[in-house]
Amino acid sequence: MAPDINKEFPLLSQYTYANIAASGLMYERLMDWRQEHDLDFLIKGSIFREKHHVFIEEIRATVGQFFGCRTENVSLIPNFSFGFNTFLEGIDKGKKVLLLQNDYPSVNEAVENRGFKTCYAVIDENLESNIKEAIRNEKPDILALSLVQYINGIKVDLDFLKNLKSEYPELIIVADGTQFCGIEAFDFETSGIDILGASAYKWLLAGYGCGFMMFKEDCIRHIYPNTFENLEPVTFSKTQEHLMRYFEPGHQDTLNYGSLKFSLDFLREIGVDKIQEQLEILSSRAKEELTQLNALEDAVVKRTNHSTIFNIKGDDALFKKLTSNGIICSQRGSGIRLSFHFFNTEKDINRIVQLLRKELKET
Question: Residue 106 and which of 44, 232, 267, 357 are 20 to 30 A apart at CA?
């Protein structure tokens, strides 16, 4: 990444930020846009809101263009949990759902708490094989999973999901992309995923209170099916009217959703391919170094492709040592989670590894 990009993030001058999986960073350009947005509201009042619907439609279009989804099949949501719970309320409770053991609570608990019939696949080095075996044995109607695991960064193979959908066309694949969207180029329409939702405050750097859900055309009629069949479109397509009724009730927040549009434009300006290339470099380097330190679980070491989220073996004392040395990270599961974005460098990884190596020698 160009050095001037990092100047957008003042925090990086004080800390080594290895915590993008917990929270994205505010950056200078976004802060300027948000201030201009609120100043406009301050001096215009209701006049500012007169073109609200036009701007919201522009935001949907930007999301659709960025991720390869038809604009009318994009819904803007405050966070993934809102969208996923809304989806679950609109489908037949007699359906059987395949989950991943120890997946993000917003995925698993939302399904389990509603009394759906559930079955599970284990998250390990054989994740894809475990999913396929569970589908073969349990015959679920829905597969709901996070594309990247929040604790250890294991990333499901997208080609596997595409082939899975081809083999089981009736299976509805619902994905949480919160830890995925923004790390690599992705085309929703050609993927095997039927519904993808994401909060945008992490890798997409859009701040809090904004996210989106994208739907394949064929699955929309199965969500709140009774109202879909009886709906007469008023302004937009029948598809969009149906999604807006449930996923975008009431007024929409132009500050937060506008921040999403601004950040997607910002990432496009940097270059999604360049971001992906940088993250692949960081992932490879971090995995190599942390493997040599015996700091990673076997399931991560044995997989070929990995994200830039790593959970290293470590206790409270090691966590305090890292944070006291200006390394921002998180305690997750039984270890310490490190996560890197495009603004990180190999120097950041070297600094963390040197500190870990020193601690290991002292203990």
Answer: 267
pLDDT attached to residue 5: 82
* All domains in the chain, ordered by first residue: 3-26+271-362 (3.90.1150.10), 51-269 (3.40.640.10)
In the chain, where does DSSP find H-type helix? Answer: 3-6, 28-44, 46-49, 52-67, 80-89, 105-112, 127-138, 158-167, 217-220, 225-230, 238-247, 254-270, 272-292, 298-301, 316-324, 346-362
Integer Cα distance of 178 and 182 in angstroms: 9
Distance CA(76)–CA(257), nearest Å, equals: 7
Encoded amino acid at 307, one letter? S
> Average of pLDDT values for 217-240?
77
CA 64, CA 57: separation in Å to the nearest integer?
11
* Radius of gyration for the alpha carbons in the chain, expressed in angstroms and rounded: 21
Please calculate the CA angle 1-16-147 and round it to the nearest 5 degrees: 70
Q: How confident is the model at residue 283 (pLDDT cuts 50, 70, 90)?
A: very high
Percentage of residues in the chain having pLDDT higher than 70: 96
pTM: 0.94
